[in-house]
Amino acid sequence: MEQQEQQPKLKEQRAMHHGFDVEAIRKAAARLDDGAVTEGYAADREAVIKMLNDALATELLCVLRYKRHYYTVSGRENASAKAEFLQHAQQEQEHADSIAERIVQLNGEPDFNPATLTARSHAEYDASNDVDAMIRADLIAERVAIESYRQMIDAIGHTDPTTRALLISIMTVEEEHADDMRDLLKKTD
Fold first, then answer.
1. Of 152, 147, 145, 96, nearest in space to 124 by CA
2. 92 Cβ neighbours under 8 A, 6+ residues apart
3. Residue 99 near residue 56 (C-beta atoms within 8 A)
4. Which member of 10, 56, 155, 162 has the lowest number of beta carbons within 10 Å of its beta carbon?
């Protein structure tokens, strides 16, 4: 009898000891259609999805810009720029894929609509034919992306740690891209 009385007290002590909200954890087993989004999700999910769709548009436009630069730049003297353009296009595509996956995890729909892509993108497309102009356009776009991600990270704060971590990892690569473009620009000056 005494052991039966101690079991509820023991459970209560364990719950209080680690400080977790056991009831919230148990509720997470409900509403399976919500996938990864539990009741404890603290961010404005619709606002985060919109923000991510705008970031998706930015990444897709960056893929297109870098691909155009890759295919249109020519000459042996531009081989290093050409290689950077291709590598960056591939990395921007990886960012777009990661963002689209996160949108789906949040029960949203990734917006790949080409008709609204440029309007939603933070960066701009570039159709330059001169390699210096291409590099400058890419450096500008990278700086715009960095600031956009910084603001998104600030807006999310700690309400959505998974999205925050994703955006931080993408921003890290965008900062590397900006350094690469700056270095290329110095070589051409």
1. 145
2. 59, 60, 62, 63, 66
3. yes
4. 10
- Which pair of structure tokens corresponds to residue 44? 């404005």
**Helices (DSSP H) in 77-160: which residue ranges?**
79-105, 117-120, 131-156
- What is the number of helices (H) and of strands (E) in the chain? 7, 0
Q: Which residue, among 129, 144, 3, has the nearest Cα to 62 in the 3D structure?
A: 144
Tens of pLDDT, residue by residue over 124-175, are 999 999 999 999 999 999 999 999 999 999 999 999 999 999 999 999 999 9
Give the count of beta carbons closer than 10 Å to the beta carbon of residue 9: 9
Q: Give the single-character DSSP code of 108.
A: -
User: 125, exposed or middle or buried, with CB in 10 Å at 0-12, 13-18, 19+?
Assistant: middle
Residue of 98, 144, 99, 100 lying closest to 122 (CA atoms): 144
With contact defined as beta carbons under 8 Å apart, do 38 and 57 qualify? Answer: no
Domain parsing of the chain, residue ranges: 1-30, 43-188
Both tokens assigned to 12? 């209560």
Domain 43-188 architecture: Up-down Bundle (1.20)
